Amino acid sequence: MKLYLAVLASALLCACGGSDSPKSSSGTEPGTGPGEEPGDPSLPQNPLVQVRFIDDDSRPGYVSGALTAKQQVTLEDTVSEPEFYVVDLYDGQGNLIEADWYQSSSANADQITVAGAVPEEPSYAMRIHAGNAQGRSQNSVTLRFHDFKGNSLMTGPGGNVDRPWAYGEQRPKIAVYRDVSTGVCAFDNGFAYVVDMLEETDTRRDGNNGQSNVADDTMFPAFQFDCGVNPHNTDRPTLFDSSMEQSPDNIWSYSVQNDAMYYGTIVYRSLHAALGEPPLDEKLRIRVHYNEGFIPSIFWDGAYANFTEGHAGAYHSSVTLDIIGHEIGHGVLSRFVPAWASFDGSLPFEVKTAHEAFSDITGFVAKYKHSGQMQWVHAEEAELFERDLSKIVTEEGAVVSYLDYADAGQNFYLGVGLLTYPFYQLVQSRGVDSAYRLFTDAAKNCWSGAQTLESIAQCIKTTADAKGDDTADIVDAFKTVKIQAFDQGVLSHFNVEPFKMRVVFSDNSRSTGQVTGWQWDFGDGNTSTERSPEHTYAEAGDYTVTLRVDDNSQDTDTFSRKLDITDQYCAPQTSSLVKAQIDAVEIDGNVLDYSPSQHSYGATIIHVADDSRVSVRIEGDDKGETGSFTWIAWLDVNDNGVYEESELIKQAVVDSPVYAWTTELNVSAIPNGQARYLRLTGRPFNRKACDQFVGQVLDVRVQQAETR
């Protein structure tokens, strides 16, 4: 028996192809796999299943690099063994460019360096056959690749005023393409391509009806500059004050173009190593200085990763390794799951969460493959939109479990941890490469359509099952976020309803059988074995409540929730940005001694007449703030100090310059003889009751008559 052993690939010299490679965009299958030999025993059978290659030659129009077999099959004694390998060259659409483009001198797949000239194309494919004196194998293995043409190493500044660096000193030089005949350098090395948008936008996006954008290198050429044999680029810094001339004291970031080219090339190589193939069908196209304005905009449009300017004094450039990796991750996932390549907002909510989670994971993987370090905080270098992927609650306001997913509201980013935290757990048991491969294989195999996060998790487990993997760690990883990937078991979960110091706990555990036991730890030294207990805390503070449950399948699970216990009503914030403010308040004929710096007027109780109606008159000054103002009244009926959305009793919009509200409120929900807090707010736009600013909010106590 002739056994061809698998050879592990070098991390930076690898690309992947195989008999199961995706079809080309023309719809033709570029190659067939082992086991399809028609029957002539004199012809060799191709033992290669997965082969990796990346161009390591910087000359344009020429490729060279190690061909590394990642996986091979065992050949029977009756099959002729290969004497060499033959490579046919195709373009990225599956069209033959040249047959017998390369022939190896060795049958050892791990000792082959492929080299040869290629015509200018956006992308290429190799189809590799085994060969001997009688001919070539019918079956082949196919891989995609790009022509690396970074023939000149460039220096220049990078980073920002807080963390500056120089390429060629603190960081390696940047590979760019230099046209030796014109002396012009272009930010296009075949792997990464950077466009300076000069604060303009791509108007084509407005009329594409949600379809993927199309790359146009004529309309959006790569950034260029005149250069010598030792190119150095200083264009173009972001200034603190754009109205002033450039000077060392007026620079906010040094060259977003340089950073994009540097990080873009790293992302290509890192994801190439992780995926075993180029991350996208074509090179990575990045557009910087896209549009202008205060609010940062970072997005993938199907062809380009787009980045607005870093706004001086507010936030730094978002052009960092993991954020570029994140945006390219959207492109990777759209390639794996074409049904998810939509840009009109029509994707299902949970698919949007999955898209962002996969892209966060891809950004992490890009950092890891480059540095070897596990840096779990996404966007940490940019200090913008940071998310901690090593936690379920990745950012403030994120949901604590899949059973709390509705708390994300319309913000699908708040559910990202429901996939990134299971990935984090799987990295602990399997390592980064294996965990990422689980997700990418599942995406290729069974992510499609309007899936839920639960069906996505089930697909990951099914994909691992099909490979014969032990899936216990997958089940456990998704149990941590309360996603069921098991056939039999239990998920612990509970809801809370706080009434200041008193809290009502409601068991919400799920079991494929029946829950048989509950063990509560209230975080203050007290416990309970009731199913849905109540507990009153002796002191205000932060507590972590944990519920452990058992079911009749002998499975067990725990769930924890952090509580902020207080006897105070949610207080408004102070802000120097607030303009409009309340000046005078009259409620049911009671004129309050109102001050804009004070919000609580609960010491005086306003008694309500038998008709349960309260008149309100508020006057104020818009202080030049334009637009409209939203006035809202909340009534804390359950007396828990939170002012829930269900307790909103009236809302009105008043256009500036009028900053005033006269209305009548129905407070019949107050129990007879009891007092409840009423919160009145006036803001330029709607905000939650507990997210208000001093000067635009007041609390009063209203008491209902004993009998009505």
Automatic annotation (TrEMBL):
The record's InterPro entries line, in alphabetical order, gives: Ig-like_fold (IPR013783), Peptidase_M4/M1_CTD_sf (IPR027268), Peptidase_M4_domain (IPR013856), PKD/Chitinase_dom (IPR022409), PKD_dom (IPR000601), PKD_dom_sf (IPR035986)
Q: What is this protein called?
A: Neutral protease
Where is region (Disordered) located?
18-46
Record carries keyword Glycoprotein: no
Q: Which organism is it from?
A: BD1-7 clade bacterium
Which residues are in the PKD domain?
503-552
Key words, A-Z? Hydrolase, Protease
Pfam families, A to Z? Peptidase_M4, PKD_4
One example of a Gene Ontology biological process annotation:
proteolysis
PROSITE patterns named in the record: PKD (PS50093), PROKAR_LIPOPROTEIN (PS51257)
Q: Where is the composition biased (Low complexity)?
A: 18-29
Q: What is its EC number?
A: 3.4.24.25
Any GO molecular function: metalloendopeptidase activity
Q: Which domain of life is it from?
A: Bacteria
User: Is this entry keyworded Hydrolase?
Assistant: yes
